[in-house]
Design a protein that fits this description.
With 251 residues, the protein is mainly α. It is built from seven helices and two strands.
Length: 251
């Protein structure tokens, strides 16, 4: 009969099971501990993430592990059932650790200069804020065309910096999407890859990149779209000021 979710493996049974499973256990397995009804605890050598994905090998041809009917030998049937669960658990747990390692390894080769691009964007965004805020000061009236020109230049530089960051952000998002079944979350994986500061990066979901249109309800678009919206708001405000004051025509 099936073992179900809760069963116990005695130390003697585990010794016998491990002896039978020896040819099938991976070299990176360091230790197995039986913990009664709490199950098994596994310890592995650290994965690099560049190994092949762990999969449980077949034991169907092994005379000490192949299926035995419970009606023929209840004790042997139960022992082999437990051996099957142990072997599957070894590789299931190894695969979970490997997935995290593979996720981190891919991020290490993908992030590249994303941090530098983010800093460039922050610098340009700050300069844009300064240029836009200046338009609200009395001094701007005396040099309105020049102030607007500086704003446009700042907008262009910020859009270019956002596009450059999105280029790298999309690659990072692709890795997040690829490793969606890893246990590590995005921030934890990036921190493990050596980029704890990445928690502040505006990396959108992978399916949000390369769209031709973004809904106004989409509050987490790529950075370039966020800047486009900001520039649109700034341009609309400047145009309204010009219409209401006649300052554009007057200068």
């Amino acid at each position: 009969m099936p073992l179900g979710y809760s069963f116990q493996i005695t130390p003697q049974e585990l010794t016998e099971i491990l002896a039978r499973l020896q040819p099938y256990l991976p070299k990176y397995l360091k230790k197995i501990d039986a913990q009664g009804y709490r199950g098994l605890r596994f310890e592995f050598e650290p994965f690099t993430g560049r190994e092949g994905e762990p999969w449980s090998p077949s034991t169907l041809e092994d005379p000490k592990l192949t299926w035995v009917l419970e009606s023929d030998d209840e004790a042997e049937h139960l022992l082999r059932e437990k051996a099957r669960v142990v072997l599957d658990s070894v590789y299931e747990n190894a695969r979970r650790e490997w997935k995290d390692a593979a996720y981190v390894a891919d991020l290490k080769t993908t992030v590249k200069d994303a941090g530098a691009r983010w800093k460039t964007y922050q610098h340009e965004a700050k300069a844009l804020d300064t240029a836009y805020d200046y338009l609200r000061t009395p001094d701007a009236a005396s040099e309105w065309p020049s102030a607007l020109s500086r704003l446009i230049d700042a907008q262009d530089r910020t859009k270019a910096a956002a596009a450059a960051f999105d280029e790298r952000g999309q690659e990072i998002a692709r890795v997040h999407s690829k490793h969606v079944y890893a246990d590590l979350g995005h921030d934890a994986a990036l921190a493990a890859a050596g980029f704890p500061e990445a928690k502040d990066w505006p990396v959108a979901d992978f399916d949000r990149y390369d769209r031709s249109h973004y809904s106004a309800w989409d509050t987490q678009p790529p950075l370039e779209e966020r800047v486009r919206r900001l520039v649109e708001e700034q341009d609309a405000h400047v145009a309204k000021v010009g219409r209401l004051t006649g300052s554009i025509a007057g200068h």
